[in-house]
Hints:
mainly alpha; 3 strands; 2 domains; 17 helices
Amino acid sequence: MKLHKWHIKPLFIKLLLLAFAIFLNILSWNSQTFSDWYIANILPVWINTYSRFTNIFPFSAGEMLIILAIILIAAGIIIFLLGFLKSDKLKSLRRGYWNIISWIAVCVFLIQTLNCFILYHTSTLESKYMDSASQYGFEELSSLRENIVGKLNSLSGQFERDSNGEIIYDADWDLLYSKCIKSMQELGEKYPNLSGYYPRPKRIYFSKFMSQQYLLGIFFPFTLEANYNTEMYITNMPYTICHELAHLKGYIYEDEANFIAFMACTGSDDLFLQYCGYLNVLNYVSNDFRNNADKEAWNSRTLVKEEAAADNIFLTADTWEKVNNTSFFKTETVEAVANTLLDGNLKINGIKDGIKSYSRVVRLLIGYYTM
């Protein structure tokens, strides 16, 4: 009797993976219970395996993959432009290229589904842990602002500064990472998804271009890495790191990541982290307060001290000058494109208010202080 060898065709495997990814997306969109179960039980598996692997690299593996993608796209354009040549080798190269691209597309879609898309359909942190944040009035908002401004004014004078008034922070970066991770893990006692292993935050090499997008940090789902902008002013660093680490643990909503970063920073025993935590929610709270305050309330508000107000920046003036002088594109153009893409991505994943969802952190902060 002759034995027959069974060969699974690559096309069948690709279609199977694509179908599986589509099935998971449909399931997560229609079952919050499944999404909650996935984040609690399956996502930690990827973090403890895949994320540990990408953490081996001292650089951002996600950023390197983006560079590789750009190279592949450029190669595809060249191959397309050479399409008029009648060459068997070129035809073979073209087939090989599209085969590689199709594999990459299917794998990226599957990984994005597993590490990102499903996360958008979980129960909200507010619905699971808070009862009082759904409704609040101006009194609660005013009290929140007074609390935050009071903390900032108290802490702002406790740091060494240079001749320009900028904070001098000479701590070891690995120590800063460990403080952020420690604070995040401590939150795991109340919010179980935040417990366990965290990879080392990664620096973005092309941070100047990132600055033009007004991005402080970015979570790469396809490498499970938390990345941050090295050009931003130091008071943004701890908060941004904790924000991106929150995404890594399944808190993909921007308001929730902001809220978790606030709790992690302000819950630390490090005064600098506390200061950064209060400073990074100031604009959200102040904007809501300004939009709702009458003349009397506005005139009677506690003012933010000059030092704290000066620390409430994205980049210093000198850094902005370097960014704009070394860029190939205008910052206004890059920012507009980035905002459109970010807003579109959030809305596609079910976040109806898009970028505006960041400011919903005020609602969570009030719930936190009134619990």
